[in-house]
# Entry
Amino acid sequence: MNHAVSFFDRQFAHQVARADYALNPFEQRVLPFLAGDVLDLGCGLGNLALAAAQQGCRVTACDGSTTGIARLQAEAVARDLAVDARCVDLNNECPAGSYDAAVSIGLLMFFARPRAEAMLHALMASAKPGGIAAVNVLIEGTTYLDMFDPNGYTLFAADELERSFAAWRILDAKRDGFDAPGGTRKEFSTVIARRPQ
Ligand SMILES: C[S@@+](CC[C@H](N)C(=O)[O-])C[C@H]1O[C@@H](n2cnc3c(N)ncnc32)[C@H](O)[C@@H]1O
# Structure
């Protein structure tokens, strides 16, 4: 397990112990846009995947956290939801396919820049024409770095997602900033966009 996945695997184990499964604000923002076949890359504990499946989506969800994927698989079976949850190291593989909605919340910054850019392009390519992509990343100005592998991470430029989706119809774009431990900051960019037909 790499540094970032170990960091989140520990955090998810604490959340499972507390049954803390609330959607985060980014997941809440994306959920109303999801329909049909959905890809959730870096699904974490699977809260968004389960909520999407609950509203009728067929979800393919991937993450490197064994704790996150085990919880998602167990909950999907218990609730008889259409979720295919896979434990994968996204440094080495990226599931291909064609989806009505391709989502990646809080994932792409955990890769060195060439891999982060390749994954963003792969995610965009996996949205069907007329489908949507929803991406959330940490951007420059972020000073909370504990969760990163020092050898491989990317803080995106503030307007980089908007520029990447310039040929798409942007449905929602927002920057958010939050205080983090030790007087540091997390700065986020989120874009939800529709691919041209
Ligand atoms: C900030 S969490 C986001 C989780 C979820 N999308 C959410 O919004 O709560 C980042 C996720 O990326 C996953 N991750 C980081 N690097 C990864 C890698 N190389 N392969 C697979 N998953 C990875 C972590 O396991 C973690 O679940």
User: Anything to note?
Assistant: The pocket of S-adenosylmethionine is lined by residues 2, 4-5, 8, 24, 26-27, 42-44, 63-65, 68, 89-91, 105-107, 110 (CB under 6 Å). The first strand starts at residue 37 and ends at 41. Helices lie at 3-18, 25-30, 47-54, 66-78, 113-125, 160-164.
